[in-house]
Design a protein that fits this description.
single chain, 33 helices, 42% helix, alpha/beta, transcription, LacI/GalR-like_sensor, DNA-binding, EAL domain-containing protein, 11-stranded mixed sheet, GGDEF_dom, 38 strands
Length: 1010
């Protein structure tokens, strides 16, 4: 009996010249083996989605075929860990033990270029999207042909295209002319690029092949029927599909050879007229001519089908969305005859599952009941698939994510036969329907929210203590509800429906402002938000808050003003009381720091005019802590009140004594002529404080350490004056206390220390004083080592180990973080290369990137160069940026991260949760990993708030397809709780302290053996 298997295909699209030609052959090969085919379409140009991240259908599928890099590194890592075999088509497997089916791109392109050389061309350009594996191989073949033909290479001949489409080829050809590099032929890495080049040349008045020769690669249908017809390389789609399916079955049945992990399928050079061969040479047999006519016929049918599909899509969209709830049975008009839409739901314990929302079957076959729940890895429901999707059946099962900018909704499964015309052009317009479906679900959610808001507003309007008003601009009359009348009837004048009756109630000083707000000029600036006074019936002034906004008709003309009115008199009284409290110390009644700084600023302004000086004195009671600790806080408070009174006696009426907190006081001598006046006041303070005084029968003695500085001699801003007075006070305390010290520049020891550290840091790289440690990151699901975070240490020349927290801020402030960060990136990648050579190819090295590095426009190019020089793959590198850095400039961050992701590196958001954490930010930023800040992990067992935050970050990240790393894990209990929350990875002292590279290699081998 034949063993039945389920084969999964992951591809960006399921139609078009490449994917649409591979898929039918794969389906046919799978049917012959009496097995089922599941196709997952992952690309969404609207949302920028290019790869499958979540483990969809992972438990159902026996083997996977991945067409181009359409599965994320994390998904492939899951496959590798699960033991599920997978075959990569069109690109090298990222794992050394993986299997691939590859076209002989290099030798085939070499043959195409040699053909041009045989025509006498020696100035041959190459255009192609070099970010793709197969195009890189074709470029190597181009270089091989030049070298073999002894043609000197000119780098100006090579132009990287933005894509494999017509426009990319046209723009690349324009760039060749712009570079003024002489060329007579173009070897394009893809046929559409080649056809775009021909169009560009024709637009400039050149003829192909008379003036320029052009070759392509792929042999798409348009290549043969273009004029001139395109010389190209024919991709063996049927052989590729058969090889991929055959290898998948060999892997499942244990028959695959470890010696042949890459299957290379030969391609064929097809000679036509664009290289200057005869136009008729493409028809060497009658079969060639028949194929040409068939291409013309099927392309005509495809174009006709696209026209009909456009009409059908519009019609279906109208029918499916005319009600509040979308009807998917009307939305999918193509050959799909069975469908199941499942959306994400959360249970009481916060675990996610897919719940069936809608189904349809155009043939009346069974469908899963609405509300039935499925795990992501077990979707779609096999028991309910239609008869045609059985093993060996004609149908395939298509799976697609349903995602919008607003939300990751879930997945849809469709079953039906393949459209035979989808392999000629991107004919399957239903791919756009998935975006329409997601947007329609957004609309349903918004409808529900609007309905809920309307219901709440109706209740609020009946129950609120605020007044509601409605001004009809066509009649010029205002309606006030009962509460509004009650608020305004407390005034001395009567309120009517005339707008002017409101202005009569307003305080004269506020009337002009209120009147302007109600004009169209005022309303065009912003909605009304006003606080103003009205006169009460007894002559007192009452405060009210009025808010409102414009309602416009369909043409945008204002028709009404609607708003609310509230009595805020008590709130204003409380604010005044709070403001007073904010400026005064509650214990002593003295001004606090805020009020003191304002008074210093005022005194500085006065000194600008009279050219005199002022002084700031910092006072610390020397033995107050002893009294406070031995006699208790109550006695300490009495002592502070007594001391504050004595200090106040020592200064003049225009001077200020303030309390900063604890036993620290600060004094402003607002007008002095010289330092002798400071000494006079300080001596008086010291004399008074050292006299014994009695509190509650106890005799106390005090002394004080006093520091002072002078404006403008020592500083010209408030903060500097306070800082310098503080430095002088500490110098006084270090000198024994009970004395005055006046600031001099020599006292700025911290500045000297900072200068010395900065100087030493500048030479730290040259002297080899910086070293790297690595802290392991462990996958919770498997217990395997995922990778390590790079941590820098500074072993200074004096033998001290300086922690990053002490020198990194200085490096950022001085700009030294840029060369240091560059060194860390290069060294970390080199160490990762050592790990790979030691047998750890899939490990990920994480490197922290500073805000200054992230602001460099050429940073992606720096990363690309480091990867090339160190020889590690992009998926081995993870760049970590802090949440604060990511949200500083969203436009820059989205562009920069997009370029880095296109290289293939992972992106992690570090310190998540302590800043502007938001689903909005994560949704917009192209990132892969979220790292929970250690502050939430430290107390998550004891603190339910920290646990809730950690859970929220994990769930929110997973809903966006992101993985989560928890930092600072120190206990087994924390690890177990994070496992329950389905956190992906952890790092911390529990699994490994920071270690050298050699120690990390030993650590990995020990964990692997265990």
């Amino acid at each position: 009996m034949v063993q039945e298997y389920r084969i999964g295909v992951i591809a960006p699209h399921l139609d078009g010249e490449y994917y649409g030609r591979l898929l039918p052959h794969i389906h046919q090969a799978v049917r012959k083996r009496q097995s089922q085919l599941f196709a997952i379409q992952v690309a969404d140009d609207y949302l920028g989605i290019t790869a499958l991240v979540e483990p969809l259908a992972l438990q159902l599928i026996d083997a996977w075929i991945v067409i181009l890099p359409s599965a994320s590194a994390s998904f492939l890592e899951l496959l590798s860990e699960s033991g599920k075999p997978f075959v990569c088509v069109g690109f090298q497997s990222p794992f050394p033990n993986g299997h691939s089916v590859l076209v002989e791109n290099r030798s085939s392109m070499k043959a195409a270029v040699k053909h041009l050389i045989d025509h006498g061309h020696r100035e041959i350009a190459f255009i192609g999207n070099l970010d793709q594996y197969d195009l890189q191989e074709r470029y190597k073949g181009y270089r091989d042909a030049l070298e073999e033909g002894e043609i000197p290479f000119d780098e100006r001949w090579v132009v990287k295209t933005k894509d494999n489409l017509l426009e990319g080829g046209s723009l690349a050809t324009e760039e060749l002319f712009h570079r003024s590099a002489p060329f007579t032929a173009i070897a394009a890495g893809a046929d559409l690029n080649a056809l775009g080049a021909i169009d560009c040349l024709a637009g400039k008045g050149y003829q192909v092949p008379r003036d320029y020769a052009v070759t392509g690669f792929d042999d798409i249908h348009q290549a043969a029927i273009n004029y001139p017809s395109l010389t190209t390389v024919r991709q063996p789609f049927e052989q590729m599909a058969n090889a991929a399916v055959r290898r998948a079955f060999e892997l499942m049945e244990g028959r695959a050879s470890d010696n042949e992990r890459a299957i290379f399928v030969p391609a064929e050079l097809i000679v036509r007229s664009s290289c200057a061969c005869s136009e008729r040479s493409q028809f060497t047999t009658s079969d060639d001519f028949d194929r040409y006519l068939l291409n013309l016929s099927q392309l005509r049918s495809s174009l006709h089908s696209i026209t009909l599909n456009n009409y059908q899509m519009t019609k279906s969209l109208i029918n499916a969305t005319k009600d509040e709830r979308i009807d998917i049975s009307k939305l999918f008009w193509n050959l799909a005859h069975w469908g199941c839409l499942a959306l994400w739901e959360e249970d009481e314990e916060g675990r996610r599952h897919l719940a069936v929302r809608q189904t349809f079957s155009k043939r009346g076959e069974q469908v899963p009941p609405e509300g039935r729940k499925y795990d992501l890895q077990s979707f779609p429901p096999l028991d309910y698939l239609p008869y045609g999707a059985r093993p060996g059946g004609e149908d395939i099962v298509i799976l697609h994510p349903v995602t919008s900018e607003l939300k990751n909704w879930g997945y849809i499964a469709l079953a039906g036969p393949l459209d035979p015309l989808n392999n000629f052009v991107a004919n399957d317009l239903s791919r756009h329907t998935f975006t329409i479906l997601a947007v329609a679900l957004d609309r349903e959610l918004l409808f529900e929210q609007v309905r809920s808001i309307a219901e709440k507003l109706e209740i609020v309007s009946r129950t609120t203590n605020d007044g509601i008003w409605d001004w009809d601009l066509t009649t010029g009359k205002i309606e006030w509800n009962i509460r509004a009348h009650k608020i305004l009837n407390m005034s001395a004048s009567k309120l009517t429906s005339q707008p002017r009756s409101l202005l009569k109630l307003v305080h004269p000083e506020d009337r002009r402002r209120v009147g302007f707000a109600f004009t169209l000029s005022g309303l065009s600036i912003q909605p009304i938000q006003l606080e103003f006074r009205i006169q009460g019936a007894e002559g007192q002034w009452l405060w009210v808050y009025l808010a409102g906004d414009i309602v416009r008709d369909a043409s945008g003309t204002p028709t009404r003003l609607i708003g609310s009115l509230a009595d805020i008199t008590e709130k204003k009284i409380n604010e005044a009381r709070i403001t007073q409290m904010a400026y005064r110390d509650a214990l002593t009644g003295l001004p606090n720091r805020l009020m003191f700084k304002e008074q210093v600023l005022a005194a500085m302004a006065d000194r600008e005019h009279d050219r005199l000086k002022l002084a700031v004195m910092m006072i610390d009671l020397d033995r107050f802590k002893i009294v406070n600790d031995t006699m208790g806080h109550h006695m300490g408070d009495l002592l502070l009140q007594h001391a504050s009174g004595m200090l106040r006696e020592c200064v003049g009426e225009q001077d200020v004594v303030a309390r900063l907190g604890g036993d620290e006081f600060i004094v402003l001598l607002s007008r002095i002529e010289g330092a002798e006046e400071i000494h006079h006041v300080a001596n008086r303070m010291l004399e008074l404080l050292k006299k014994p005084f009695v509190l509650e029968g106890q005799e106390f003695y005090l002394s004080a350490s006093i520091g002072a500085c002078v404006y403008p001699c020592d500083g010209e801003d408030v903060d500097a004056l306070i800082r310098f007075a503080d430095l002088a006070m500490y110098y006084s305390k270090d000198s024994g206390g009970n004395q005055l010290k006046v600031y001099t520049p020599a006292l700025s020891s911290k500045r000297v220390e900072r200068f010395n550290m900065e100087s030493a840091l500048r030479y730290a790289l040259e002297r080899g004083e910086l070293t790297l440690n690595f802290q392991p990151q462990v996958a919770l699901a498997t217990g395997k080592v995922y990778g390590a975070e790079t941590l820098i240490r500074w072993n200074s020349s004096d033998g001290k180990t300086i922690q990053p927290g002490d020198f990194i801020p200085l490096a950022e402030e001085t700009g030294l973080i840029v060369p240091i960060g560059q060194w860390v990136l290069e060294r970390a990648c080199r160490e990762c290369k050592r790990w790979i050579r030691a047998g750890m190819p899939s490990l990920v090295i994480s490197v922290n990137i500073s805000a200054l590095q992230f602001q460099q426009d050429d940073f992606p190019e720096i990363v690309r160069k480091v990867l090339e020089e160190t020889g590690i793959e992009p998926f081995n590198l993870c760049l970590e940026i802090t949440e604060h850095t990511a949200v500083q400039d969203m436009e820059h961050s989205i562009r920069m991260l997009g370029e880095l992701v296109s290289i293939g590196v992972k992106i992690a958001i570090d310190d998540f949760g302590i800043g502007q954490s938001s689903l909005l930010w994560l949704k917009k930023l192209p990132v892969h990993i979220v790292k929970i800040d250690p502050s939430f992990i430290l107390n998550m067992i004891e603190d339910s708030d920290d646990l809730a935050i950690a859970k929220a970050v994990i769930d929110m990240s997973h809903s966006l397809g992101l993985s989560v790393t928890a930092e600072g894990v120190e206990t087994e209990e924390q690890l177990q709780r994070l496992q329950q929350l389905q956190c992906d990875r952890i790092q911390g002292f529990f699994t490994g302290r920071p270690m050298t590279s050699e120690q990390f290699i030993a650590y990995f081998k020990e964990i692997a053996n265990w």
